[in-house]
Amino acid sequence: MEQTTGEKRKFIIPHTYAIIFSIIILAMLATYFLPAGQYERVEEGGRTIVVENSYSQVDQSPVSIFEMFTAIPLGMQAGARIIFYIFLVGGAFGIIRATGAIESGVNALVQRMQGSGIWLIPISMTVFSILGFSTGMSEETIIFVPIGIAIARALGYDALVGTAMVSTGAASGFIGGMLNPFTVGIAQEIAEVKLFSGIGFRSVVYVFILLVAIIYVMRYAKKIQADPTKSIMYDIEQKIKLVKVSDIDTFDKFTTRHILVLLTLLTGILVNMYGVFKLDWFLDELAANFIIVGFVAGILGGLNINKLFDALVDGMKIVAFGALIVGFARAILVVLESGVIIDTIVYSLVQVISHLPQAFNAVGMFAVQVIINFFIPSGSGQAATTMPIMVPIADLLGMERQVAVLAFQYGDAITNSIIPTSAALMGYLAIAGIPYERWVKFIWKLIVIWLIIAAIALVAAVMLGVS
Predict the structure, then answer these.
(1) Of the candidates 454, 466, 462, 434, the residue with the CA atom closest to the CA atom of residue 146
(2) Enclosing H/E stretch for 50
(3) Which residues of 257-283 are buried (b: 16+ CB within 10 A; e: fewer)?
(4) Of all helices (H) and strands (E), which one includes residue 38?
């Protein structure tokens, strides 16, 4: 037998599904040890409201092992509307991606801006941020990282700048989340608040988040352009032959077809906004409109019928991880409800958070979401896991449910740019050849600034009564 004493074993981060299944097991065990209890609830204005000071203990109702496994298909059923919404929207964007319009459009933009040097950074970051807040684009932007790096190196920067142009731009929009159907849309559906409401407040916070990111990346770019030895990647960059600008044109030329596809996508987003704010559209109508947009974009983009539906299925495959995790996360809620202990957990958290000054209650919820995000980095999965608990907490603390959604949104999105459990981040770094520890050295200050902005925004949201 080989001796392993003294060998340093590498810690392997558990699979997200494994983490959630572990939580399901813990939830089942908790039904044996936590006292069962319930709040009284009433219907008010189309919402189910928790009655303050109505918590009382009831008879214990422990969940068996078989009932725990039964909770998984029941969770899938409970989250079906959200799950199929994610699949259909993902499929629609799969068709749009198959046309090559987004890739060619971004490529055309960066080539047009080659002579503008430093100004390519804010323009690129703004473009990717728009994709982030309107379509929830995250992992999908990985394909643009090689272009960003090639451009950055050609302009005298390093791989960190090229990666940040893409990733922090998309992240800024994802944090803003004004029209993000996968995080804000799902959280608001669970919280029973009007879809994409609070867009004005979110937009203001988004501007600050994006501006700070742009300034942060531009300052670093200017510093290493003036003195390349200041680059965090200096030794690695010295080993890499600089890529010529002429070598970056790896995508198809930007054509009239591509323009029509992007105009179709823009029109679809505008129609969805009109439907949400004027026609009371919700997930079913939004999904239907995205399907129409996908089909029209595919036809205009030159896809034949087989390629169109292949792309639809491929798009669904990409989001399958996040879609099905909603059902697994809902299984946690099914177990907690079956064991009649979810209100006990809510009651306990309320007792802790309520000792904070009222304006900082939301910051406490935000801190909880930041911690949970390390273990459940999927935005849709985290929404399904935490919002059923955070909503009644908000009610009991006299806080607007919109603020609970904001606390989830910022807690979910900001740390995705630094936590090692983020699939998008690991994809960025893998394709860019950037060691994780060097990325942390580059990005940690920006993450701290973003967290501070979010905390201030949540205090402001409470004081302003954002709803």
Answers:
(1) 434
(2) strand 47-50
(3) bbebbbebbeebbebbbebbeeeebbb
(4) strand 37-38
- For the cut 50, the answer to whether the pLDDT of residue 246 exceeds it is no
Burial class (CB in 10 A: 0-12, 13-18, 19+), 11: exposed
- Which helix (H) or strand (E) is 294 found in, with range? helix 283-300
Is residue 42 helix, strand or coil? strand
* Environment class of 120 (CB within 10 Å of its CB; exposed 0-12, middle 13-18, buried 19+): buried
What is the C-alpha to C-alpha distance for residues 254 and 107, in angstroms, rounded to an integer? 8
Q: Which residues contact 392 (CB under 8 A, 6 or more apart)?
A: 39, 50, 343, 346
User: Phi and psi at residue 42, in whole multiples of 5°?
Assistant: -135, 155
195: left (phi > 0), else alpha (psi -120 to 50), else beta?
A: beta
Residue 314 has pLDDT above 60, yes or no: yes
Residue 84: closest CA among 259, 270, 334, 288:
288
pLDDT band, residue 361 (cuts 50/70/90): confident
pLDDT band, residue 250 (cuts 50/70/90): low
The number of residues making up the chain comes to 467
pTM: 0.70
The DSSP 8-state label assigned to residue 139 in this structure reads G
Give the residue among 410, 421, 430, 432 at the shortest CA–CA distance from 198: 410
**Tens digit of pLDDT for each residue in 158-210?**
889 989 998 999 999 999 988 887 788 888 888 888 888 889 999 999 999 99
Query: Quick one: which of 389, 382, 401, 384 has its CA closest to 343?
Result: 389
Nearest one of 82, 51, 97 to 323, comparing CA atoms? 82
Residue written as tokens 């939004």?
A: 286
| Beta-carbon contacts of residue 207 (< 8 Å; ≥ 6 apart) | none
What span, in angstroms and rounded, lies between the C-alpha atoms of 58 and 37?
Answer: 5
Q: What is the tens place of the pLDDT at every residue in 20-61?
A: 788 889 989 999 999 998 877 777 666 666 676 777 888 899
Neighbours of 335 (CB within 10 A): 28
Residue-level pLDDT at 6? 47
| pLDDT tens profile 131-159 | 888 877 666 676 677 677 777 777 778 88
Distance of alpha carbon 195 from alpha carbon 279, whole angstroms: 11
For residues 255-280, give the mean pLDDT: 84
By the 8 A CB rule, do 374 and 360 touch?
no
DSSP state of 241: P
* CA nearest neighbour of 23 among 71, 57, 82, 78: 71
